[in-house]
Amino acid sequence: MKIISSYLSKTQESSSLALFRLGFGFLMTFSIVRFWLKGWIKTMYIDPSFHFTFYGFEWVKPVGEYTYILFFICGLSAFLVAIGYKYYIAIITFFLSFTYIELMDKTTYLNHYYFVSILSFLMIFLPCNSSYSIDSFIKKKSFKYSPKWCVDSIKTLLFIVYFYSGLAKINRDWLFEAQPLKIWLATGSYDLPIIGSTLMQQEWFHYFMSWGGMFYDLLIPFILLYKPTRIIGFSLVVFFHVFTAVLFPIGMFPYIMIISTIIFFSSNTHEKILKFILKPFKNTIKKTIEIDNIKIKKNKFAISLISLFFVVQFLFPFRYAIYPGELFWNEEGYRFSWRVMLMEKRGYTTFKVVDNSNGNSFFVRNDEFLTEFQERQMSFQPDFILEYAHFLGDHYNNKGLNDIEIYAESYVALNGRINKRFVNPKIDLLKEKRGFNSKHWIIDLNEEINYL
Amino acid sequence: MGLTPTVFYFCAMKNLFNFIITSCIIFSFISCSSDSDEDIDQIPQFDRSSILKNYADNIIIPRYSDFQSEVLKLKSDIENFTKEPNTINYDKAHNSWFETYKKWQHVEMFNIGKAEQIMYLNTINTYPVDELRINNNINSKKLDLSNENDWSCQGLSGIDFMLHGVEGTKEEIIEKYLTDPNYSDYLNNLIEIISNNTNTIVEDWTTNYKDTFIQSSGNSNSSSLNMLTNDFVYYFEKGLRTNKIGIPVGYFSGGNTLAEKVETYYSSKNSIQNVSRDLAAEALIASENLFIGKSSSGSTGPSLKSYLDYLYSSNVNENNLSPIILNNFQKAKIAINELDENFIYQINNDKSKMLNAFDKLQSIVVNMKTDMLSILSIQVDYIDADGD
User: Tell me, what's the ipTM?
Assistant: First the structure.
């Protein structure tokens, strides 16, 4: 107990949180603007007539043209977080609006969106505005120190992201087949000048990248935590993420990670960076009175909540263990677990509607209901297949076909294997309930890929 | 003021590009020196632009030229027929129409470049045609058919209606052209539009598009190989499998067959000539030719097949895909050849054979969309979205 309470009372310069807030806020503002300018709000949230929801969050749906307002609120709150103006309202608004956006349609699910969601949740409890913020300029006082656990909690979250994505790479395909990197480097990276048609075609290089990637993910948090290796660690972070940004269409993720890992440097360094960036505002900053410590209010609640949060974060990725079958094939417990870039998976899935009243049957044209992007994601992910089958059931019920059964004709190819039938064609999907129960209607891969 | 290490790295990030290039050069230098040079020579490099070159030089452009000359012949035969509507001229026009339609099966899949811009495919082979709208167009002497509602009123499918469907028998049809000049005008206008559009496309391919096409050999969504492969798969699934077989046999419509939606419906319906099976068979051969890189003269060159073979031989994937796909092509050919020449007859009398042909085509679609596209890292859609 003593150790814990003395740890909790340890402090660290507030500049670390301030710089993190600044980096995160501006990066998020940029992300939202970028998403908007690419026209994705329309193509991903407004155009589709049907949306794939997360189980339990079916009520979270795009709100038509108002979805633009939602994105505006999200972008604005990110900007307010960055400048530290009305920080708590801003970060709560950001967390809620961003999470709402991500829950609207799971077609767009990405691990780094989940990362942004839970990170912004964490930031609600961190006094990131205690220095170098508009809030502190207005009050004319800033706090030189804030609790050390605040910075540590961000580091812990980053530790989880890297370490767990490293653990996820310990699987047969990744290590012993160099899949899916083999495919992505050989054919997907053909564009790169010089190395695209040479290095990227070498089999040893595919293995080198696979094993290197695994060790990188597992070790980088330690390399960053240990002071003597920190600079090497950060250069590795920059090199690795820039390299992946060039190779793969992974959007903002590399930049989010590069900016986030700056948190591992000392507060002293953070202070210097802030002074450098904020040079034009030097005089304003001088006018604020610096107070030695932050008045920590009764934060027992925050600390217990954050502890619980981390317990969940540490355990949640292992939930797949309670499901039978191969994780990579069945994808039960696959999401929210830092499994990134592990699969080249394609599917072809169509649905047969049998009308019991007259024995007739017909196949559904997916393009009547789904965008191509949605169809692509639906075709190989079991929970999408089931949700869509139920949607089709409701659709045809409403059209007066009351006694129907729906069967899936589904084929999936995973990591260079030839396609294999995916869904048991004899199972009426309308009789299968959505939920967290195991999906027995998936035909086993009969191979073990996942190790841990 | 000394630069802290962090600031130093910020500066490095500003020069991101230099940073990457330098790193990559160092990287490849290390890898080359650690590995003997022979190793690198042993793995043959696959030149993707060689596929594009073969496709452009030996398939796309020659096939378009073939189509173009047939269109010209059809044009003069239609002119003769409308000038002097009689049985001989009618038969000539009909035969040219059939030959042109056959050649069309070899180019429909190339919905790329100019063809995509001017909606070439839609203006030539949208069926079933809109009889009511065509009749309105004829009577109102409408010549501008650029509105998308007029796609179903023109093209080779439109000519099918004009030559075979305006009345119930050949004699009555000829009679129609003798008495109502509006029909002649409309028919001449249809072939005029096809001819003009085809000339535009052939000219674009032969003058500037060919080089652009061949040079864009990368793997972005807008590169030629990705677009062409997407078009090919899309054509095979929608243009061939769904339109020619799936929709008419009622695959998507609750067991209700829709025989009136077959390609070249009027020619079969009014017993002029049964050609729908021949066209489907031709389309399948055209698809196989593209897959294996076979030109009209019978020679083969670099193709999707040889790319897949190369990837398999470099251990990129477990199974050799091309024999599997070719085997499925064989099965599909057999299934289509078992069909009656007249699809309306086949659908109304024994639709199980049509369904069988559909299934055989379907298995090729599955091969292409799951196995082939994944090994080639080609996204099946044009949506650019982030991945992770």
Answer: 0.90
